[in-house]
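User: Please predict the structure of the protein below. I'd like the answer in structure-token form so I can feed it into my own downstream comparison script.

Assistant: Understood. Taking the following sequence of 87 residues as input:
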Amino acid sequence: MKGQNIFQAHRMHLFQDLVHATKLPHLMVSFLYTIVQVIINLGMFICIKQGYEGYIYLAYVLILLTGTYIILKYYIFKRTEISNEEN
């Protein structure tokens, strides 16, 4: 859709943005991803064990993750925009 070659490297994923724009170490970002995944998995396990509908939990998780993604991308975009103006 953006006219980019899918076989060439690009930095359009949140992981790359967090590493390159915010200068966080790769291991820190990977650790944060791991923690988020563990929390999601534990929440689903608890839902199933308690007899709750997993679909409702999934909907909440998707809404929360989508909101978090949009906020982080906006923050990173603003941060890189400001640093580009300084250069």
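That's the full token string. The chain has one domain: 14-86.
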